[in-house]
Amino acid sequence: MSDAAPETTGPDLGAGVVMDTIADGSMLAGHVGEQAVLLARRGSEFFALDATCTHYGGPLAEGLIVGETVRCPWHHACFSLRTGEALHAPALSALGCWSVEARDGKVFVRNRVPAALAVRVRARESPRSVVIIGGGAAGFAAAEMLRRQRFEGDIHMLSDDDAPPVDRPNLSKDYLAGNAPEEWIPLRPEAFYAEQNIDLRLKTSVAALDVAAREVVLSDGTRLKYDRLLLATGAEPVRLPLPGMDLPHVHTLRTLADCRAIIARAATAKRAVVLGASFIGLEVAASLRARGIEVHVVAPEKRPMERILGRELGDFIRDLHEQHGVVFHLDDTATALEATRVKLKSGGTIEAELVVAGVGVRPRLALAQAAGIAIDRGVTVDEYLQTSAPGVFAAGDIARWPDPLSGASIRVEHWVVAERQGQTAALNMLGARERFRAVPFFWSQHYDVPINYVGHAESWDEIAIDGDVASRDCMLRYKRGGKLLAAASIYRDRENLEVEAAMEG
Ligand SMILES: Cc1cc2nc3c(=O)[nH]c(=O)nc-3n(C[C@H](O)[C@H](O)[C@H](O)COP(=O)(O)OP(=O)(O)OC[C@H]3O[C@@H](n4cnc5c(N)ncnc54)[C@H](O)[C@@H]3O)c2cc1C
Ligand code: FES
């Protein structure tokens, strides 16, 4: 992950600024020496923090203050103004705090002080052993939060992947494009797990759950006891039932190994076919274009992403990709994959040395289902993310939870939601009884255009557009019966945060 070089713009906060120039609930970007610092006001109190988000280096001064928190404009991480703690993902590391002195109508920022993280759960329940099945977004965020809350019992994190938890969204974006160094990809360096006494077991597949005995059964027959269990098994790419799907140049993308295999193939490929015009498919298309490969996208829909983002953004995304040289074959599907070509239903063929199928994912529910845990197109959880089995929680792509905004039970496949659910599940495994109330959020990046989406709209009867989509300056509000369900924006980051805050109620 990147931390952008700190910018030392704005006033010298060490020399002091007049208090009244900072309105209640607003912030000022400045610096102390070479350090970029953010000065925020809430009522009569002033807080100073590092100005750069610990996720990807977003400029926090362009974000939003909500209560005693500051929200990052890029991917909505939420930090405590008082302690600097990264309260809600995707940032996981705290911001440095600075001491502040108010005198003679001026406020001076003095020294950087270490973050003093408050324990949010006074362990009312003290499980001895927590088992986490899954080494992805939700599983990792849960383990990290358990230790952040000073949980001292055993944490066993079981993953059938061969890589420690990685920044999965990067695998279709900068990393695949060749623009991200290796060190951005692990969520934490390998030493973290030993330091935090987290028993991370890779290439370890869980074969069954014995919820009566409170044990998980590994594929080699070993049994592991738990007091609390988190199911965070995520999702797996759908594999099309097509002749040739098993050929070596045909790939799906979920893991770091998948990504590396695509990169290796891309080194010699001149032309690629991407099956599917979804987020992952189109992000892959953009990244392969960045590598100079000719890209053809084949998809059954008439307009990319219309079902999720609507007609206007769908047309925009298609134009954007065409401007970058992507060739679309819409309203069409592949009927067979051969060593050097893809056959289409429309009768045509495309020569290609690389095929990437991005045609959706399927939640990995088999373990929960076989154990008799309640399932409804996902693992059913309550507002505390508890499943129907005692002591068993679920989070991430597999979990279907009661969404307070829509009143419906929903399941989404978003990175930030998975991490935040992992965090809430961790707190609740320690007895916090915290409701999961986060408004769903995701982002997607196509070339230099980020799309930020907040809320959840499976259908709508109106899209109210503010601004201009083609000029990349817009906010689209998805409504049903006049009620706002979701909003998508391009380069309206602060407004997107305001919509999120309003939806939180
Ligand atoms: C390439 C790519 C790009 C993405 N980009 C974005 C984006 O830009 N924005 C966004 O919001 N979302 C994005 N997503 C989606 C996001 O990554 C997922 O929503 C998120 O990873 C879900 O987290 P999870 O913890 O539920 O599952 P995962 O992160 O998939 O983790 C599941 C873990 O469970 C393990 N596992 C499963 N079954 C077993 C078993 N039986 N035994 C042991 N281990 C098991 C797996 O090995 C894995 O470690 C992207 C996804 C991909 C693949
Ligand atoms: S850069 Fe701040 S949340 Fe991603």
Topology:
Blueprint: E1 17-18, E2 27-32, E3 35-42, E4 45-50, E5 64-66, E6 69-71, E7 78-80, E8 86-88, E9 97-103, E10 106-113, E11 129-133, H1 137-148, E12 154-158, H2 174-177, H3 191-195, E13 198-201, E14 206-210, E15 215-218, E16 223-225, E17 228-231, E18 235-237, E19 250-251, H4 256-266, E20 271-275, H5 279-290, E21 294-299, H6 306-309, H7 311-323, E22 327-330, E23 334-337, E24 341-344, E25 349-351, E26 354-357, E27 361-363, H8 366-370, E28 379-380, E29 392-394, E30 399-402, E31 409-410, H9 415-429, E32 441-446, E33 449-455, E34 462-468, E35 473-480, E36 483-490, H10 493-504
Parallel strand pairs: 11-12, 11-17, 12-13, 17-29, 19-26, 20-21, 20-26, 21-22, 28-30
Antiparallel strand pairs: 1-10, 2-3, 3-4, 4-9, 5-6, 6-7, 7-8, 9-10, 14-15, 15-16, 18-27, 23-24, 24-25, 30-31, 32-33, 33-36, 34-35, 35-36
Helix pairs in contact: 1-9
The protein binds flavin-adenine dinucleotide and FE2/S2 (inorganic) cluster (FES).
